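This part of the workshop introduces the protein records we will be handling. Getting from the letters to the tokens is the skill we practise here. An example says more than a description, so a record of this kind follows:
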Amino acid sequence: MGAKKPLKAKRLSDAVRLCAGAPETVADKLKYARLSAGLKQDELADMVGIDRITLIRYENGQIEERHMQTEWLVQIALACGLDKYACCSPYHVFIAEDAGRRIRRYRKKRGLTVKALAAELGVSATTVKRWEKNKNKPPVSIWELVSSLKSMD
């Protein structure tokens, strides 16, 4: 069999938006990756092991980016022959790349104890400990806070 021909977007507006420049939202990145690989939604969903409806909801932006599973975004990118973080937002990369270590580094750089950081953020010390041990996923606001560490260096 010959090579697969990339699929065209069903709506002209989708095709124009995706080709106009680098996709900015995770939903656009997913759609662009799938169309570039020439895959149908059901094919990609089967390859990744998620149901087609979830993939459709991801592609249409019906699920907030912060609620999208990083592992699935990575698997989709790899299935489409892209870099593993090609379909991820910076927040998803933060989660995948040891968020706990970065939170701990941020806390120590500011000279704070777990309890002091927890008080500053309005959460319990247990919550901060669970973030630092990568047992719980921190919210987007924590990623934004920790990302500011670069400006402190």
Remarks:
- The longest helix spans residues 26-37.
- The mean pLDDT is 85.
- The CA atoms of residues 33 and 82 lie 8 Å apart.
- Residues 12-94 form a domain with the 434 Repressor (Amino-terminal Domain) fold (CATH 1.10.260.40).
